[in-house]
Amino acid sequence: MTPYSLLPLLFCLLMTQAWSAPMATRQTVLVESQRSARDASHDFYVDLLQLVLNNSREQWGEAKVEEVNGDFSQSRAFAALNSGQLHVFWAGTSKQRQQRFRAIEVPLFAGLLGVRVPVIRRDRLAEFRGYQTLVDWQGLLACQGSQWPDSDILEANGFRVTRIAKFDLMYSMLKQGRCDYFPRGLNEVGAELAAVGQQDLMAYEDVLITYPFPMYFFVAKDNEALYQRLSITLEAMAASGELRHFLFSHPTTAGLFPLARFDDSLRFRLTNALLPESTPLQRPELWLPLARP
C-alpha cells in the first residue's frame, strides 16, 4: 500500500476521532446534503440539529452543521456514520438500526412520521373516494423506499409495495401511474407537495395509515461524545416544550397545525414489529395525540 493510498483512510479516522476528543475548539458536524428540491423537509433536520448544538455550546463548545454532497441512499448514509464521512443521520428507527448505531431516542416529529397520508394523482380523486376498507387499500400498490423500514411495515400488514431506490423516482413513478399512491409522513407531505412540479399531485387527507415509527438522529456506535451532547440536549428541549414549539413553528411543518382537520379521517392502524424494546412508547410527552401509540 502506497503512502498516497492511505490518505482516505487517515481522513476518515481523523473525522471520527474529532468527535471523541474534548470540544475545546469549534467543531463541525457533518450531515448529508439535500437530496433534491423535493426533499423539502431536509431544512427541518439541519435547523433542528443546529439549534441543539447552539443550546449545548456552554457545556460542549461551539459546533456548526456542515452539509456533505453525495448521493446517499439510506444504507450508504448509515455506513458513512461509521467511516466518519457523516456524523449525524436522521431516519426512522428499527431493531437492526439500533443494534448497529446509536439512536437519540427522542422522536423528532412527535411521532408524525408514522402518520402517513397517501399522496395521489389529482385526476384519481373520485376513484380514491371509493376506497373505504382496509382490504381496498391492501389491494392498491404503494410506492416506497427500497431501504425504508416503512416498506417492511406495510408488507407485514398485507399492503402491496413497489420498492424504489431513489427518492425522486418515487414521485415520478406515481405521476406515471406505476404505483397508485405514495404514503408520506404528515411532517413531510406539505413541504414536498409545495415543491415545483407537484401541482398534479395531492395529499388525500380522508385516509391516514398509522403505525408507531419515530424519526431519530443517529450517530456512530462509538461516537459517545456526540451521542451524549445530542441526547442530553434533546431530552431537555422535549421536557421544556422547546422541541414541540420548534415543530409547530418551523416553516416546513407549521402548515400542519392544528391537526383537528384529521379528526374525521379514516384511519388504518398498523402494527410495527420492527420497533426496538427501548422505544419510549410510554412517554406521552414525546408523542402528539394523533401519533400516540
Q: Characteristics of this structure?
A:
19% strand; alpha/beta; Transporter substrate-binding domain-containing protein; 5-stranded mixed beta sheet; 3-stranded antiparallel beta sheet; single chain; 293 residues; D-Maltodextrin-Binding Protein, domain 2; disordered N terminus; 2 domains
Supply the number of structural domains: 2
- Order of SSEs: HEHHEHEHEEHHEHEHEHEEEHHE
What would the principal axes of the Cα set say about the shape?
globular
CATH homologous superfamily name of the largest domain?
Answer: Periplasmic binding protein-like II
Gap from first CA to last CA:
53 Å
Which whole number gives the mean pLDDT? 90
- Strand-residue fraction? 15-25%
Number of strands: 12
In the predicted model, the low-confidence regions spanning at least 5 consecutive residues are 1-18, 20-24
Q: Which architecture name of the largest domain does CATH use?
A: 3-Layer(aba) Sandwich
Task: State the major sheet.
Answer: 5 strands, mixed
Determine and state the CATH class of the largest domain.
Answer: Alpha Beta
Proportion in helices? 25-40%
CATH topology description of the largest domain? D-Maltodextrin-Binding Protein, domain 2
How big is the Rg? 20 Å
By helix and strand content, what is the structural category?
Answer: alpha/beta
Fold and architecture overview:
- It is a single chain.
- The protein has 293 residues and is an alpha/beta fold.
- Mean pLDDT is 90; it is low at 1-18 and 20-24.
- The protein contains twelve helices and twelve strands.
- Strands 5, 8, 9, 10 and 12 form a five-stranded mixed beta sheet that branches. It has a three-stranded antiparallel beta sheet with strand order 3-11-4, sandwiched between helices.
- Keywords: Signal.
- It comes from Shewanella cyperi.
